[in-house]
Amino acid sequence: MMGLLEWILNLLLSPWLFVPLIYPGLISAFAVLLFIIWLERKLAAKVQLRYGPLYVLKQLGGVIQLVADLLRYLSAEPIVPDQADRLAFIFGPILLFASSYMATVAIPISYNFYAFRSEISLLVVLALTAMAPVFNLVIGWGSNNKFGLIGGLREGFLITADEIPLFVSALAMAILYGTMDLVRMVELQSRWLWGIVLNPLAAITFFVLMLLSTSRFPFEIVEAESEIVMGPFTEYSGILYGLTMGASYVKLYVLSLLFAILFLGGWEPLPPLEFPGSWLILPAAVLFLKALVMMCLSVFMRSVYPRYRIDQALRLAWHYLFPASILSVFLSFVVLMGWFI
Amino acid sequence: MTDRRWASPVFRLKGHLDAILTGAKYLVMPRATVRYPEEVIELPEGYRGFIAYMKDLCISCGLCATVCPANAMKMYVERPESGGEAPAEGAKPKRRPGINYTRCIFCGFCVDVCPTGALEHVETHDVAYEDFDSMIYPPGEFAAGPPKPEFERPPRRLRPVMDERRGIAYEPAD
Question: What is the predicted ipTM?
């Protein structure tokens, strides 16, 4: 009996199961999802001087509100419209959610705890996150709804506008560190300085593009509730709608983890504490805290900004952020030259 | 965008920073709303809530039913079998007002027009009903007094006061 328990514990704690399944993978992605949506509503309420969600677990300010919402989604009937493309309609949200959180497998937790270490793990994360918006297009087309189609088209415009500068500003950091290996990046930052100090331009560009690609305010253009109902997700109900709504938050979570590794020194500096399991819990907690700060900042934008028009967002992306990301590449070269001279 | 300074990207970046800082400032400001079922705001004098009916003062003139713009007030012929008083020997049965709160708009015309002051507003305004039928009050029930809201615990009463900095603030009423 004890042998079996030990075997299961060892299996769970093995990196190639722990990373995709527990942290930073599926379970923590769900936990973050439930927490961050509550936090978004609470922050918006606080800025507007009101209370926000309160009555589900009142002692903690309604923190499990989203559990109640999830139960509602689970018990609601997912309706598939007659004219919709059934295959795309049903599998779209599932693949959208899956591809949003899939990139977590390439994110390391500490120097010796990762699902896999690769020379190009930065590219793997970026490529997997860039896959998700394609399913928005599929959903928008498959649901056979004019709002869905318009939302899908908007997503199409925005993918090209945000993913290219996002890649360029991430690659600026890769040039600066001389590697695309995320573990090595953290190692180098602990020896030099945090990336946000070395190349602030890339950090700002990356942050704004993070908002753009996860459709946070002011770039909540794809859903745009007051214009096109819910964009590609108009026809959805039940748990399928829950998945479509959660996907952008999970993508935000993945990109925040990436931001923490690229610019905020990853799991460094570690607090000097010793307790059983500290080799795993401490770096995971530090990395998570940094990502959480970035997520809070992102969802806080909802209470500050109105929504941009699609042309304003595209102008911002192509006229300002794309040149800024190219400039950040040059800044990386300048910093590197300054370092070696 | 008439201000020419907005053409400069630096000025616009400053605008974004100002917006975020303003949001942060409001984030730490105290809230302007109250937790309603636990805390209630004390109502001002002359508040037009539910209507109380004093049957003894009523002279059955029917002005309230005539003036009612929403047709919520209606005169009923009072019969002994429906809980009313039996008419005196040889007299016609009396007519009494009843009210339908699904229609009432709380304008207070009936209170104003009543020549004997038999109708009066009370402060109650927050009663939940399970169905529409229970919102209709024939004369007998109408005379029994206005409904009372049910709270789980007695709520804290707050009084709104003007505040120089925040605009509105609340202090305990008792």
Answer: 0.77
Spatial neighbors of A250 by CB under 8 A, at least 6 apart, are: A29, A32, A33, A97, A100, A101
- Our measurement of the distance from residue A161's CA atom to the centroid of its chain's CA atoms, rounded to an integer in Å, reads 17
What's the predicted TM-score (pTM) here? 0.81
Residue A161 is encoded by which pair of tokens? 């506008």
Q: Are B32 and A304 a contacting pair at CB < 8 A?
A: no
Report how far residue A297's alpha carbon sits from residue A291's, in angstroms, rounded to the nearest whole number: 10
B136-137 and B119-121 as β-strands: parallel, antiparallel, unpaired? Answer: unpaired
Complete edge-to-edge strand list for the sheet that includes strand B73-77: B73-77, B95-100, B136-137
Identify all chain A residues contacting B35, using CB atoms and an 8 Å cutoff. Answer: 51, 54
The 3-state DSSP class for residue A111 equals: coil
CB within 8 Å of A168: residues ≥ 6 apart: A322, A325, A326, A328, A329
Judge: A49–B19 Cβ closer than 8 Å, yes or no: no
Model confidence pLDDT, tens digit, residues A138-159: 888 888 888 988 988 888 898 8
SS3 A104: helix
Phi, psi of B51 (to 5 degrees): -110, 130
Q: Which residues pair with B137 in a beta bridge?
A: B99
d(CA A255, CA A216): 13
Handedness of CA A159, A207, A105, A32 (dihedral sign): negative
Asked whether B34 and B169 are in contact (CB, 8 A), the reply is no
- Give the whole-angstrom CA distance, residue A185 versus residue A122: 10
Q: What share of chain A is helix, strand, coil (3-state, %, to 5)?
A: 75, 0, 25
State which fold the B31-174 domain adopts: Alpha-Beta Plaits (3.30.70)
Chain A residues whose C-beta is within 8 A of a chain B C-beta are 43, 46-51, 54, 300-301, 303-305, 320
Token reading at A226: 């007051």
Q: Nearest CA to CA, how far is A91 from chain B (Å)?
A: 38
d(CA A195, CA A172): 10
Cα distance between residue A333 and residue B3, in whole Å: 38
Nearest to B23 among A51, A304, A320 (CB): A304
Quick: pLDDT tens for B20-54.
999 998 888 888 888 888 888 888 888 888 898 98
Alpha carbon distance B50, B104 (integer Å): 9
Pairing of strands B73-77, B95-100: antiparallel
Residue of A nearest to B168 (CA): A49
Alpha helices (runs of H) in A200-308, residue ranges in sequence order: 200-213, 225-228, 238-263, 278-300
Residue B82: band (very low, low, confident or very high) from pLDDT cuts 50, 70, 90 = low
CA angle B164–B167–B170, rounded 5-degree value:
100
